[in-house]
Design a protein that fits this description.
This protein is 55% helix and 0% strand. It has 17 helices and no strands. The relative contact order is 0.14. The chain is globular. It folds into three domains: 51-116, no CATH class; 124-235, Orthogonal Bundle (Cyclin A, domain 1); 238-371, Cyclin A, domain 1 (Orthogonal Bundle), CATH 1.10.472. Helix 13 crosses helix 14.
Amino acid sequence: METRAAKRRAEAASLAQNRSPKRKRVVLGELPNLSNLFDPVNSNPGLEPQKRKYRRITRVKKAATTKSSVSLGNPKSDDPRAVQTHAKSGTDANLDDLQDSEPYVSDIYQYLRKMENEPKRRPMSDYLEKVQKDVTANMRGILVDWLVEVAEEYKLLSDTLYLSVSYIDRFLSANEVPRQRLQLLGVSSMFIASKYEEISPPHVEEFCYITDNTYRKAEVVEMEAAILKSLNFEMGSPTVKTFLRRFTGITSENQKTPNLLFEFLCCYLAELSLLDYNCIKFLPSLVAASVTFLAKFIIRPKVHPWNSALQECSGYKSAELKDCVIILHDLYLARRGGSLQAIREKYKQHKFKYVAMLPSSPEIPVSYFEA
């Protein structure tokens, strides 16, 4: 007689087969080390819709009325997931809710700024040079670009994508990985992140299927265990998306209606930052601030993109953002990462207001970076 466990496995396998992705299954295999991957191409590079907005508004209302749920002033409150839940809510709520809970939200972001600086949550900025022997920046970019397609295929939250890339970089900072297993690291990281963020995460069989069954279920589970062990089960870290919600909210708080063009453009730029290995050296909060700076510049190039409210909220002067903004601007204009098209194609869609096709000045005035 078939056991219940065997029956569940059979049902899961059947589900994975029936939920065939629209796109062709991809085997990254021998990732190329192409010198021209980051050469410019004739494409002009833009945020992701606010998913589950109702849920976030509800959460911020609860946060404003029940401060005891997370006490950021108490160092013993070290639940990153709970903290980020409230942080996510902060800028998605309406203005009245935001004003009522502003002191509380500020405490949350001070705590997240402290958390993002913890060494255990930060990847090495030079791990490709010091740890990896077979993986290059181009291979990493190809992997991240492919994971964007996987996240789109299974309709995963953007937070899942950002956490996945964070796990990949942190794991590669401590463990040498051959290029043949880099895709396995990618799907296993997204498998963990989806279980952390999603209400209904995809089954492990689906992550095997999306790689054209290059890896068996046992291999994905084994890599999952290796990642968890290497990261010491520290899975909750603030990402660029965490801080971006706050900064876009500050920018838009005096507007009666949401500025979707600006928000989509911010999300586009933030996802582009995931492609570039050189962005790892920047803290997530600094990348988010740079994204906000650049998005404002692209939309209104004649107006200084930084102001006192954003400086106070982010803690960064415009001069501190210069290096990151220049990298992001090059990514936007396809002067870097031009061969990586998944994110660019994603934000050329109507639902994202075609922000990847917005024109931009080729140069940012130096005066905008003067403190």
